[in-house]
Design a protein that fits this description.
With 227 residues, the protein is mostly helical. The protein has 2 domains: 1-24 and 129-227; 42-125. The protein has 11 helices and 2 strands; from the N terminus they run αααααββαααααα. Helix 2 (26-41) runs antiparallel to helix 3 (47-61) and helix 3 (47-61) packs across helix 6. The longest helix has 19 residues, at 176-194. The radius of gyration is 18 Å and the shape is globular. The N and C termini lie far apart (36 Å).
Length: 227
């Protein structure tokens, strides 16, 4: 059976962007601005610069990487070994996500959310959309669960292909940031409407409680008016 699909309309993405530009999302914008400033100030791929970038994106976006020094060395090795077009291919994120275990041993853990955010903010935001649980749930909601199969943690290549499919269906072009913001915002909104105690971003929780008029447009069929 093919799972149902909820169409995405450009007006929803534009409404989410309007919210992002408003006073309701000041902390979110400052966070993104800080990452952009760091990218401009430290464009090189060397151990010190990469470590600072890893620590910053891990702290500001909560990507749950604990071995930050090992992660930074791995990311620098991957980027220094990447050639030409690979630097704008989804396989690059998959390689960065495979942070090796410590010398004492253990399994390689995949940190796709971390790697996608590093690539998005410090390599090319249009090449690398952000992979996280909210984006995954929203892609499945819009494209049908079959779009990303049954794997709860699909590869970044599968995620990126689904993201591009949704962008194409909605006529959004190649600017990933607007769709990224919509997926993250409304993915959390859906969780919040189902469970007001859900673990979501605190600034977005305040936004949802304020219920600005743009939220109804952005949420579309998932909008729940405040009582």
């Amino acid at each position: 059976m093919v799972s149902p699909q909820v169409p995405l309309h450009p007006a929803q993405v534009e409404a989410a962007q309007a919210i992002y530009n408003s006073a309701h999302a000041g902390s979110w914008r400052r966070t993104d601005g800080a990452l952009a400033a760091l990218c401009s100030a430290m464009p090189d791929v060397n151990p010190a610069a990469t470590l600072l970038k890893v620590v910053t994106v891990n702290s500001l976006y909560g990507t749950n990487v604990y071995a930050v020094d090992r992660a930074a060395l791995h990311v620098a090795d991957v980027l220094n070994g990447a050639e030409g077009l690979l630097r704008c291919r989804p396989e690059l994120v998959e390689k960065m996500a495979a942070i090796p275990p410590p010398p004492a041993g253990g399994a390689t853990r995949m940190h796709r959310s971390f790697a996608s955010k590093f690539a998005h903010f410090f390599i090319d935001h249009d090449c690398f959309p952000i992979y996280d649980s909210f984006a995954l749930k929203m892609l499945r909601a819009h494209l049908g669960r079959d779009a990303l199969a049954a794997d709860p943690t699909p590869t970044y290549m599968a995620f990126e292909a689904a993201f591009r499919t949704l962008a194409q269906k909605a006529g959004l072009g190649s600017d990933t940031r607007r769709l990224d913001r919509y997926l993250w915002m409304i993915g959390q909104y859906r969780d919040w409407t189902r469970n007001p105690s859900a673990q979501i971003n605190s600034e977005l929780r305040d936004l949802f409680q304020a219920d600005p008029p743009e939220l109804a447009v952005a949420a579309g069929a998932w909008y729940h008016p405040r009582a």
